Structure formats: C-alpha cells, structure tokens
Amino acid sequence: MEKLVSLSRRRGFIFPSSEIYGGLSSCWDYGPLGVELKRNVKQAWWQAVVQKRDDMMGLDTSILMHPQVWAASGHLEGFSDPLVECKGCHLRWRVDELGDGNCPSCGGALTEPRQFNLMFKTSMGPVEDEASVVYLRPETAQGIFVNFQNIVNTTRKKLPFGVAQIGKAFRNEITTGNFIFRSREFEQMEIEYFVKPGADKEWFDYWLKERFSWYVNLGIKKENLRLREHGKEELAHYARACSDIDYLFPMGWSELEGIANRGNFDLAQHAKSSNESMTYFDEEEKEHFIPYIIEPSAGVDRSVLAFLVDAYDEELDKDAIRVVLRLHPALAPIKAAILPLSKREPLIKMAKELYSDLSQYWMISYDDTQSIGRRYRRQDEVGTPFCITVDFESLEDKQITIRERNSMKQIRVPIDKLSSVLVAKLNGEPFEVLPNGGSYRLGF
Ligand code: ATP
User: Fold this and answer.
1) What is the pLDDT of residues 87-126, one digit of tens each?
2) Alpha helices (H) along 188-264
3) How many domains does the chain have?
4) Helix residue ranges per DSSP H, 136-176
5) Which domain range does residue 53 map to?
6) CA–CA separation, 270 vs 58, rounded Å?
7) Is residue 438 part of a domain?
C-alpha cells in the first residue's frame, strides 16, 4: 500500500485534500492521471450496466434531499445511538450491546462511545434553525427509490428493470483509513433492480455473478476476489439476503461491493411516509404490487484502489526494477504515448501531427524529454499500454514503432494503419503483421 500511495502522489493519481494546509483527514483529490482512471472505471461500469442493456436506465439525482427521505429510510434513527466502532473489523456496536468491552465479533479494541449519526448535517436557506436542517446523502440509492414512479411513468418499462446512478456520498465515519478505501466523501455506483416478488432470489444470484465477472473482465485476478455471504445476525434490518464481493487488499480481505436483496422495504417505507403510491401495475396479471429490489452497490474509489493494487507489478529488467501498472487498456489513464526519438524539427512535427490525430479519440501523451528508456519506464509506471516511437526512418518509410507495455515487444506499423491497429489492440482483439508486406488481420 505504501508503494502505491507514494506512486499515486508522485505521478499525480491521488493527492491528500487541501495538502498545503496539512491535509483534511480522509478526503482525497484525484490528480491528472487519477481523474482519467476514475472516469474510465465509471465509464466501464456505465457501459456494462446501462449502455449495453435494454433493461437498465441511468439517473442523476441531487445530493441534498428532503429530510423526510432519511427518516423513512431509517438513516436518521438508525445511527443516532451511542456507538462504538471496532478498530479492527469496523463493525459498530451499541454500547448497551457490549459484554467485556471488546468487539463481540472479532475481539478487537473499540473506540470511545459517542452519540453518533453518520450523516453530515447542514442547513438550507438563510436561517439556520431546526427547520432548515438538510443532510448530505450517505448513499445514492434513496434518489432512485423516490423517483420510482417518475421512471415507471416516463419510460413505461416493464418489470424487471433497473436504474443506475453514480454520485458522491458522504459519511462521517468513525474510523477512516487505508488510503482511499474508507473516506468521508466518496463516490458510489449503485443499481436498484426492480423485480416481481418471488423472482428476487433468482435475480439476486444473477447480479452476484454479473458483478463478479465485471471485475474479472477488467483484469482483476480471480484469486484476489471472493464472495462472502452475510450471516443472519449480520443482515441489515431491511435485507432479505446480502453478499459482499471482497477483494484481497493489502490490509486483507475487505468489501469492494455489496449486493443486497432489499425486498420491498424501501418503496414501502416511502409509500407510508409520503402517502404516495409506490405500486407497480402488472398488466398481464392485472394486479398492483410493490416490487422487490436487488441492489448491487459499489464504491468508485474502492474499485479504483482495487484496480491499482491488482495492476501494480515490479519486475527485474536488465539490472533495474521495472515498475509497471498492468491496467486493463479500458482503464489506463493514457492509452498511448508518442515519443519522438530526437528533437529534430521534422521528427517533432511528425510526432505532433500524430498526437493531434490520435487525441481526437483517446487520451494520448506526448513526451520528447530524456532518454527513450526512461520515457518507456515513466509510461510503464502509469500503465500506458502502448508507446509509439517516431524515428528518422519514419520520415522515409512512413512507419512508426509500437511498443507494448506488458510484453515490451515492438512492431513496426504504417502510419495510416496506426489508428485501426490501436482500436484493435485497445479492444484486446488479435492482429498480426503478415509477411507479405504490411497488411493486417484485425479480427473484425
Ligand atoms: P463498510 O462496511 O466497508 O463501511 P458498508 O457495508 O457500510 O461498507 P455500503 O453501505 O454497502 O457499505 O456501501 C456500498 C459501497 O460503497 C461499499 O461496498 C463501498 O464500496 C462503498 N463505500 C461505503 N462506505 C465507504 C467509505 N466510507 N469510503 C469509500 N467507499 C465506501
């Protein structure tokens, strides 16, 4: 973890928030490379769960919501007892539930008790009084629940269907730490999948598999992921079932994403609290009912951390250690770097033209400083899958060299084929140079 924190700081992935003032505990800023990685993670999620699916839609709701939302959801009441938190496993306990003063689950040491509501409170409007209190949302899910009827009425989707949202959430956590793993301001990627009661078990299993594969398809090693089913005593009051996708972080197995079968708890609570109907009319069966909900809830920051940890690698290359982030090309902040082998004008001109062509489609970096070896290392360290070198021969034969990050293999490619070769490579499709003179089988 220390190596990763230091690499992130040094190369501009992640900085402590307000660093010039000594930092603000448990808040983080994403630098120029970090913001690309984070956007790519969110983009990959959105593509998988919204863009490629006919049964899913996106939503973007406000962070500040009517305070009654939090009364109905149980967040106001549920977190206002005096609580202690285990410093080891982070389970929270009501003081009156404790026996010998250690964590009943793992025996770890506990924090001091405090009256604790994990929601950040602020006030809305010019007068600060009890009536103006609003909260920063502690989860994005409630924005989806309260819009259930808007979605049904405007899209006319039939069950089962789902709604996905990415957005900031805030929790005044008692203990934070492990870099961006647990912070007080973070981002979530949440799905609420509405199903007929009775079909919930099947859809719960479906989403477990689906979400597990998402991480594997984006390059996380299977052996570093596991599913952990919650025991009955661990289940939240609203949940009929819950399983976590855990990742083997440097500090041990910890939750990456939670998948819960929430039954009809949330919609029923909001129906009661708002006096609005939350039922769905099933035209085939001619009946009204409140749908059940399956909720796969993932953290953007935790995913970023898992992708970084999993990708980090060191290997001996000649006499030096090569640090390489083996990020999936879809996640890599920079897709290709253009590296002219000399600073002579015609080469720079050609390289800059390549940059302006390719940067219409991808994040590309341009670097003409230092030796080529050092420039390769700098790109390896931030996970750039391809380096493109322009040399004097390029001026004659109109070909450039592509070097692959993982294998360090180099191939020579005509400039007019470069973007199609990159498309294929970035999509993981096979291509090869045929011996009969520079034609390519691109796999599509
Ligand atoms: P934990 O037990 O680790 O605090 P949780 O079970 O409270 O997590 P959920 O309420 O299920 O978390 O939230 C869903 C997801 O949101 C988590 O799996 C995690 O990825 C992310 N998340 C929750 N709290 C934080 C936090 N404080 N910092 C970063 N990500 C978080």
Assistant:
1) 888 887 877 668 778 888 888 889 888 767 889 999 999 8
2) 200-217
3) 2
4) 141-145, 148-155
5) 30-64+139-308
6) 21
7) no
Enumerate the β-bridge partners of residue 110. Answer: 86
The model's pTM is: 0.91
- In this structure, the residue with its CA closest to atom 28 of ligand 1 is 182
Same domain membership, residue 148 and residue 287: yes
Give domain status of residue 206, yes or no: yes
Q: 414-439, pLDDT tens digit by residue?
A: 999 898 888 888 877 655 555 444 55
HSE-CB of 208 using CA atoms within 13 angstroms:
18
Of 302, 303, 304, 307, which is best to mutate to test ligand 1, by the most ligand atoms within 8 angstroms of its C-beta? 302
Instruction: Answer yes or no: is the C-beta of 299 below 6 A from any ligand 1 atom.
Output: yes
Residues of the chain with pLDDT under 70: 79-81, 96-97, 115, 429-444
Question: Helix or strand or coil: residue 220?
Answer: coil
- Cβ pair 380, 399 in contact under 8 A: no
For ligand 1, atom 9, name the residue with the nearest CA: 258
Please state, in angstroms and rounded to a whole number, the distance separating the CA atoms of residues 335 and 39: 14
Atom number of ligand 1 nearest to Cα 303: 20
Atom of ligand 1 nearest to the CA of 181: 29
243 ligand 1 Cβ < 6 A = no
